[in-house]
Amino acid sequence: MSQKILTPADREARQDAFFSRRTLIRLLIPLIIEQILNATVGMADTLMVSSVGEAAVSGISLVDTINILVIGFQMSVAIGGTVIVAQYIGRGDRENAASCSRQLLHAMFLLGTLLGALCFVFNRPLLSLIFGKAEEAVMANARDYFFYSALSYPFAAIFSTGSALFRARGNTSISMLANLFANILNVAGNAILIYGFEMGAAGAAIATLFARIFGAAVILVLVLHPRSPFLIESFFRPAFRKEDLSRMFRVGLPNGADAAMFDIGKMLLVSLVTVFGTASIAANQIGNKIAYFSQIPAMAVSVGMTTVVGQCIGANRPDEAVRYTRNLLLFSTGSLVLTNSVIFLFAEPMIRLFNLSEEAVAIAVDMIRVHCFTSTILWPAAFNTAPALRAAGDSRFTMIVSTLSMWFFRVGGSYIIALWLGQGVKGVWYAMYIDWACRTICYLTRFFRQKWRKYQLI
């Protein structure tokens, strides 16, 4: 294959790359560290609670599916909104970037407060509706954990939105440091409330609540600082512009709907898993936590993709958006080769740390080892390409593909493979891999055909 001859203009363009290699590294490293912190605290929560039995682990597992739905919806709407902010930054329009940042932060706080109030008031009915088949000991722990989790939703909204806004500006260190101190507080609170006061699942939830309050306070102090680029004089005097909100929610709401439909499907699957007994619930929970740990660098790429592609599109440099997306996909795949190799070798000793029964250990080990192979091949294209498309404004397509694939292949496939074919909880994971394959085909086809270039958000 002949090598392309670069013109002087080509050489100049390469020297003036929108993101240098050093800039990308500085962007990704804090994101990776932040993901590690999230995974570590999640596993620490489960390890500490596991000392009081599988019922507590299972109860937290059930509520976490609701927490992931609510907080994931909030975060996805916020990240969708920051696509507009990132594009304004790429264009060099600081005034509109600051205005949209202010409005998004206020809107997301109101949304978090509304969702928190609904979940707080309807604690028992929601749990009974979704997880009514769970054992009573599991449900008792779930009710305690959900009570305090709902109180934390407004603070999670502030933290996730403020962090996303800083990331849109290319500053990923702020959210990493705030997360670090919040997670230290979370682990310390767990130790005191679970071991000292023997509060079990409720203790873990209270520790998380105070950690989220702390994280939100830190982010607000930084956002409201006089030297902050967000130019917010007072958090308690919101001002909205219909045109700005329309632009942000044009991306944010499909992104949030995508995340919500995805997480609702996962909730149904967790409900399906309860049919197979406590050992399967616990194995599924621990398996998901270890799988999350293996995907940390790849998930950091997903978060960073919004900043990189969004700024390139805002600067009217779509060719660079393509190049950076390809490079980040390669990085994501390489990271999965490394992490999954380690986890495959040490799967059983890692799972035994959680004090599971022998039945649960055997199930979890089998699921994780299969996951190591399939996620390396399918996960990057299935979950790193979509943020690039959304950052370019192609959020409707990603929402449609994600929703149809989730419900047709993962949810529908789970009932067929897990129930009708008798594969149990493992069948739920097999259906997940089919879903990933569908996403991979659809997103890569869309990306390389470059239909996303036609969208203009600002």
Characterize the structure shown:
The protein is mainly α and 458 residues long. The protein has one domain. The chain is built from 18 helices and no strands. Helix 12 packs parallel to helix 16. The radius of gyration is 22 Å and the shape is globular. The protein starts with 7 loop residues before the first helix and ends in a 9-residue tail after the last helix.
What descriptors fit this protein?
458 residues, mainly alpha, 18 helices, 83% helix, globular, disordered N terminus
Structural class: mainly alpha
What composes the largest sheet? none
Rounded mean pLDDT score: 87
Number of strands: 0
Give the % helix. Answer: over 70%
Characterize the overall form: globular
Number of domains: 1
Give the DSSP E fraction (strand runs of 2 or more residues).
under 5%
Low-pLDDT residue intervals, each spanning 5 or more residues: 1-15
Determine the N-to-C terminus distance: 39 Å
Radius of gyration: 22 Å
Encode the helix/strand succession as letters: HHHHHHHHHHHHHHHHHH
Helix segment tally: 18
